[in-house]
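Methods — Computational structure assignment.
A single polypeptide chain was analysed. Its primary sequence is given first, followed by the predicted tertiary structure written as structure tokens.
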Amino acid sequence: MSKTLLKLDSVCTDIAQYHILHGVSLEIPEGGVHVLLGRNGAGKTSTLRTIMGLWQARDGSIRFRGEEISREHTSDIARRGIAYVPENMGIFGGLTVEENMRLATHKGQFDRQRLSRVHAQFPAMEKFWTKQAWSLSGGQKQMLAIARAMIEKRDLILIDEPTKGLAPAIILSMVDAFREIAQETTILLVEQNFLFAKSLGQTVAVIDDGRIVHTGTMAALAQDSDLQTRLLSLSLDSHQ
């Protein structure tokens, strides 16, 4: 059994007067790809943002490698080795690909071996190295966001809906890239594309109305169409 890398225990998050997360409890083992599924508005992105300290948990505990991080600033959480790729990608359109990448490095210096690996996984990043990020396609911008998260060694990468709006061919290339990334880094993936999630995930948690309502292996969920329909109101089979 893999040891627990990240543990949320009864986490509650409020945004203004709205109660968003209602006691989320979740364990992410070290290594591989772990998927958080749920309907729109169920609390998936809110969970990632709370882990990253962008939103403050009102109650509960978030522990990373056994240490409490729920009251830490986002910059301190990032220094622990956690990266976040938001749904809007968070890239700087007025900067070049290289400049975007340098912002994610330690003191703006590249580890040449890691840079070579990034270029091998995402060849478009090398091709458009000197281009401003606004000029990239949607798929290329998503690749840049993910490449930026992996340019330094991370223990955990939180990725929010990386395939949203992308062409099927680009999604297929991302499957291979994610599998390679997961060989050295744990990934917590929020995703609406069930075929993509199914092809990558080892474990899965389903969130509904700010609460975790199911945890288990992705293989078991993928084989149980009744459970898929009950939890998600649709079947993974319809996305194959």
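Note: DSSP finds ten helices and ten strands in the chain.
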